[in-house]
Design goal:
- By secondary structure, the protein is of the alpha/beta class.
- It contains 13 helices and eight strands.
- An eight-stranded mixed beta sheet has the order 3-2-4-1-5-6-7-8, with helices on both faces.
- Helix 12 links the parallel strand 6 and strand 7.
- Helix 5 crosses helix 12, helix 7 packs parallel to helix 8 and helix 10 packs across helix 11.
- The chain is elongated.
- The relative contact order is 0.18.
Length: 318
């Protein structure tokens, strides 16, 4: 059994269930009103379902894909009762997510030709980027990996201070310079430190401003270029952190960061405090980038590895 399978314990499943309660309750409230008095899945029910999915922050394009899949099943099976709708949605959404997710992926395997494994974390301020980095560092350390943090968000003094707090809490080294320093220089020093000390993982924080996409693109490109001088192929992962509670705004942020740099994985935070959990389905589908982590609570262990089947099961559990 892989480490990935071991960590999805009963306790984590309960946390996931609880973290999605608001999203689930909101969705089923809308769905029950949409199918009230209806026994058969017909065009009217599908129209209502389409509206429910869009209002649940799944997104228009992804919603249309889901409706198309259900229409195909209706055409094939001739008769589908509204009592079957929950199960049909489970199956079709899980199928849609399977196109961008490999459930056997072990994020702690770190199979790279050259150590350290370098993760560049991007995202706007306020989405939980620094907290995500701290929680990731804790989980990697718990998995027996040595970690170095790089404070390359030199735009805000608070960002450096916040990362230092997490480094102290998790008890891992941090590489930092003063506010206003060249972010690429910090990233270079961080990767060099990790390589010199035989670290398994280096996690680089970056500035979260989006007011000038050209500058953001240039900065992220420069950071990547200098890291590759130390470890060819770095960063091995570009992790975009999004605040799930912002719903459709998270879509827009995802598009802008994808335009600025090649995003390879997503972490969607703050799902426990919102009814917008459907955004996980839509963002992953539209970007064709896998959701790797979801935040469903305040605790260090509440940043969970995303499992599409467990997520769909919790979201549609009645």
């Amino acid at each position: 059994m892989s480490f990935f399978k071991k960590i999805f314990t009963k306790e984590k499943k309960e946390t996931l269930d609880k973290g999605l309660e608001k999203s689930k309750a909101s969705f089923f409230d809308k769905l029950s009103k949409a199918v009230a008095g209806k026994s058969k899945v017909d065009d009217d029910v599908l129209d209502e379902l389409e509206e429910v999915l869009v209002r649940s922050d799944v997104g228009v394009n992804t919603t249309l894909k889901i409706i198309d899949r259900i229409e195909a099943r209706v055409a094939k099976d001739k008769y589908l009762g509204t009592d079957e709708l929950n199960q049909i949605l489970r199956e079709e959404i899980a199928g849609l997510l399977s196109e961008t997710h490999d459930d056997q992926n072990d994020p702690f395997g770190l199979e790279t030709a050259d150590k350290p494994y370098v993760i560049m974390v991007v995202g706007v301020n306020g989405v939980g980027k620094t907290t995500t980095i701290g929680k990731l560092a804790s989980q990697y350390k718990a998995a027996g990996k040595s970690v170095v943090l790089g404070a390359a968000d030199t735009f805000r003094a608070a960002a450096i201070d916040q990362l230092q707090i997490w480094a102290d809490r998790v008890d891992v080294p941090i590489v930092k310079q003063k506010m206003g320093s060249d972010p690429a220089s910090v990233a270079y020093d961080s990767v060099e430190n990790g390589k010199a000390n035989g670290a398994d993982v280096v996690i680089i924080d970056t500035a979260g401003r989006l007011h000038n996409k050209v500058n953001l693109m240039n900065e992220l490109t420069k950071i990547k270029r200098v890291m590759q001088k130390v470890v060819p192929g770095a960063p091995h992962e570009v992790l975009l952190v999004l605040d799930g509670s912002t719903g459709q705004n998270a879509f827009e942020q995802a598009k802008q960061f994808s335009a600025a740099t090649e995003v390879t994985a997503l972490a969607i935070t703050k799902l426990d405090g919102t009814a917008k959990g459907g955004v996980v389905i839509g963002i992953s589908d539209q970007l064709q980038v896998p959701v790797k982590y979801i935040g469903v609570g305040e605790g260090i262990d509440d940043l969970q590895i995303f499992d599409r089947l467990e997520f769909v099961d919790s979201f549609f559990k009645q």
